[in-house]
Amino acid sequence: MTATRDKRLAAGIWALSPLVVLLLGATVIEQPALMPTHWGASDEVDAVATGGGHLAATFSITAAATCGAAVVGGLARFLSSWTSRWLMSALTTIGGFSAASYLVTALVTNLAGSPQDVSPWWVLLMLLVAAAWGYGCWAIHGRSTPARAEVMSAIPGRGRIPKKAREVELPWSAQTGSGVLKATGWFIVFIAVTCTGIILATGSGLFSGLFVAVSLGLTAAACFLLASMDFSVTEAGLRGRTTVGGIGVFNVPASEVLGVELTKVKPMEWGGNGLRFSRKGTAYVANGGPGVVIYRASGSNLAIELSDEYAAAAAYDALRLAASQAANPPR
Prior knowledge:
The protein has about 325 residues and is an alpha+beta fold. The chain has helices spanning about 5-15, 15-30, 50-75, 80-110, 120-140, 150-155, 180-200, 205-225, 265-270, 310-325, and strands at about 35-40, 45-50, 170-175, 230-235, 235-240, 250-255, 255-265, 275-280, 280-285, 290-295, 300-305.
């Protein structure tokens, strides 16, 4: 692995930052006597805590998350890069949210003059700060790149790129779709409308209603977008875009393709339907059917399900040709 130890060390140092910022912020921001901790009906504060109590609770959570990240960093030798990256990022996000919950609430309470005058909308800022902290750890940690020989050893013999592949017509393109994702999207829309209606009808607060509507609405939109995908292979490599909107999802340069395997993409092997991320790699699983597995130089496999066996076979030939040409350019 290249530079793995340095990256994990840097990510571990970043994971300490929420605790450091909390301690520094607590000394700079005046501690309110009372601070809001929960909002109920009509977005009104229905629970408060003393400033000292709030600080003690958030300090405990932030310190625990920091210690957890330190443990993950210490176990780097026994954990895969993928596992370490996810765990450290998750713990940093938890610590970041805990630190932000005290600092933002204390600052806003002082500005408002009373805990009863603090709006629940400030919780969104806490979530954004926590997400930024977690993403920072994710980006710093990065992925470790295995040796080329290690990647090649995991590729089935028939899947390795030959010096000269069978000539096929490039560019190649095909479209595939998932009825499961479409049905899931409509189900989420139903749940969003029902839950939002109940929240607003019972007077549980506009903030709660909008939060549910927006979060579930974005999830449904993602399902609808991923329900239909366009894939293409050119001399440059593979590209995958959503049929609606043309949003790029996959981009694999031909020079990174070390092998291609024609296989059946099964949801149970890749973590379910849709766009999936796992230790095994990344996958687009429509309903479970014929497709290809692409072995990349980065060590991260990519599985793509296509509409039928003919499309899968054509994608297999096109990818092998593009990768062969990239590895053995004409002189």
